[in-house]
Specification:
By secondary structure, the protein is mostly helical. The protein is 63% helix and 0% strand. It has 19 helices and no strands. The protein is flat and about 85 Å long.
Amino acid sequence: MPKIGERLPFVSTPQTQTRPAGTKDVSTQQWVDLLGSVLPTQSVTKAAPASAFAAQAPGTGTPQPPFGKEILPSALGPLRDERLAACVADAYRNVFEGDRWPSGPERSKWLDFARELRNENPKITADEVRYAIQDKLRLERDGLDAHSPANTDRFISEAIAWVTQCYDEKAPPPTEADMRHWRDFAADLMRKNPETTPEELKYAIIDAVRAKVLGTDAVTPKNIDKFIKDAVKWVTQCYEGKEREATPAELKEWRAFAQEQLKKNPDITPENLKYAITDAMRAKMTGTGEATPKNIDKFIEDGVKWVTQCYEGKERKPTAAELAHWRDFARKHQKANPDLTPEELKYAIQDAIRVKATGMDGTGSANIDKFIQDAVKWVTFCYEGQERDATPEELRRWRAFANEKKKENKDISPEELKYAIQDAMRSEKMGTNAPAKQSIEDHIRAAYGWLIYINYAGPSQPSSEPTPNELNEWKKFAEKKLKETPEMTSEELRYYLLDSLRTAMANS
């Protein structure tokens, strides 16, 4: 039986469309990264090769709005009160997951808060209003909205539980003495800084509890031994595949190392000492403590294994010729950089091996062909659903493009040339290689197709084609933007329309 104040919110207007289960939140960067990942097999009708989205052709008869109602640029204006009320309900749903709903006074309070946000910024979006309400609701839910003894005890209990779970599973629950100790800590912190927020107090307690458990609250012989034991476990787990305890000889060696660090820097913090021990132990284990011939061979072997695993799909050891080549590289690199540390040398070797494997060591014909092949594989996988090799005609055309780029910029780096080819190929596939004004309708249809995919994730939607009215309104919206910013590129317009349509959809 529902409690008072936990009834469902009253909605006086028809309910706005909610997103189906499985709907994905996609950032602007993810739109960029995922453009074209709607494969033809996922759409009802095969998308045209130049389309980045699975937008279907217009059907016969009266066109229906793909989102159940028309989404127009007018939705980007000030939010109506009905939409603000929906933001309140959505915020409660997300924070309390259906376990609690606003009472009448609470609903009025949050609606007033939402109106204040709208008054301050008439262009505020529904998502921004919802997030603002959610943030404040979470503070209230978690006791982070005000200081009180009850909230302080809650912070202490949660901190001890969290730290125990992470670092010491066998630790007993907090005693009354533990609670008194951390209450005194909190009171002392508040005396020193009365403006500390509840959230700052909470994380200060967590950090202090964690420091005590990890031994980073003080430099003592006991804590130094803990640093050494933790470091041995971590390094052996990483580099030997199985953690083990420190031997008596290791304890002796690293205690002496710790004392030497304390002599050099008496003010070193416990945490800095801990990581100094860990770093020194790791350097010894990985050979980065000293650039000996044996360690240089290890750097080369590690570099070849890593690069071949990444770029050939299976790691292998360096050949005799590779060892000779990279030993010579290491000697020349050390001669040119006398102050180079062993770790810097290790990564210089690794980077050089990677550069050679990816064709980034020059802009010769062989590397240009590799750039073209890699670009064709990536673009066809993203936009056609299956990677393929470049055709002879594509090789001819993109070789000419690359040579033209080299003429325009004689100092162009291999990496710059590689991505110039890839970007040009992607722009052609997306249809953003033409002036922005020529591609407005294509970009609008592409945005509808992408949002249909994100929100419905399948071919069940009958169409992703905007209605004639939607197409006309968004076209006017785009033309106005181009008048205001005539320097806008076709690709920038594409993302601007996508972002605007998504916001209008959320606001409606």
